[in-house]
Amino acid sequence: MDLEKCEHINNGIAYMSAKNYADAAKEFRTAVRLDPKATETYLHLGNACVNLNQLDQALKAFKTALMLEPDNGKILFSLGGVCLLNGQVAEAIRYYNRAEAAGYRTVELYTICAGIFTDEQDYAMAVRFMGKAINLQPLNASLYSRKAMLEIAAGMPEQALETAGEFRSLIPDALDSYDLSVKIYCMQGQFSLAEQASEEGLSRFPDDPALRLLKLKVLIESAQFGRAEEYAREMLKLKLTDSLYKQTVLYLSAAYARLGKNEDAIAVLEDYVREHKDPEVMYLLMNSCLMLRKYADVKRFSEGILSCDAGEELTASAKFYHADAIKNLVGAEAAEKEYRELVSELRRLSLKHPEMSEIYIFRLISHVELGEYEKALELAEYLEKAYPERADGHMYKSYIYKKTGNTAMAEKEKELALQINPDFKLL
User: Fold this and answer.
1) pTM
2) How far lies 136's CA from each of 110, 159, 330, 371, in Å?
3) Measured torsion, CA atoms of residues 25, 31, 35, 36, in degrees rounded to the nearest 10
4) Exposed, middle or buried: residue 373 (CB in 10 Å: 0-12, 13-18, 19+)?
5) Could you report the average pLDDT of every consecutive run of 10 residues in the chain (427 residues)?
6) CA distances (Å), 398 to each of 191, 415, 427, in order?
7) What 3-state class would DSSP assign to 310?
């Protein structure tokens, strides 16, 4: 029987590795029937059920295992995970605490608990758990970074800097420690100290392109755009990885734009997309050209995005601005077909991604362009209710009423928008 049980367990583990969780669960259930007192088999079965989203069955398997071994930390941790997936946060924390008390102390346990308390905005507790994770893996740079960011969120910037200093004193040659210090100083607006930290890193690693990019970031964030332009141009002469090259180009373009050199800002991005068919950079180009009312270029770059596998959000934006470019280049009649196709596609996307307010805004403006003002108003009212802390809903109502000639209602909605956000730019 033992040999047969082991065979089914091994089959189940192989199925798990192949992500064939249904057959894995069958194998583990067979093994359980052969040996109902094998704790590890229930753990395997519970994990298979979790992957099948059969949370009740997973809970049953883990609880059976716990009856066999009440102080097994791994089982308690697994039960905490199922409770968390079920939205039972307090119960999950209870199981995680019991798992720790049973000796199950892992980075995964502590980072999950830190995440739970972060979601609850209890940053002090989240920091405490990240500290425990660091004690287990004192050379893990990402743990120090997470702890420092939590300390910033908790309003403890000095402690965040201590965390960064602790990491640097432990591993003086760790590039991540300089990145962390710069990030903290920038968040505090202490840009001179941020630049000083980046220079300290460069004094140790003068040829490191990642540290050079870090300094460039400081120059951009501290609004030293002239120095940023010069520094970025020098960086582009170096041998950079693809990601560093792209980020340097984006910073250079941003510096040009803030210096009022809009044509240069566009040109450096155009040079980049000639070599790299990057939809994100093409999106920036499309928006830059839109602000300059260069509709032929808006059309060109939106078509470039649509020729890529750009993802739903970028694709939706490209289609909307393509229609807008056609309207401005040829006329509203020529763009009507695109707007009609667009509202149908955007409706589908808004059902799939209800959290993306931009999709509702694109739908709303498309309905306005088609003269479908009632449908546009319905979407504006949705924005008002879904995002009461934002001025968008009232602003778009004002825009729609203005288009229909209802100046009194347009003015009323404008005032409501400005009450929410006095700096809001009205259409």
Assistant:
1) 0.68
2) 10, 20, 64, 62
3) 10
4) middle
5) 81 91 92 90 93 94 94 95 94 96 96 94 94 94 89 87 86 78 85 90 85 92 95 92 94 95 94 92 93 93 90 88 93 90 88 85 93 94 91 92 94 91 69
6) 40, 9, 8
7) coil
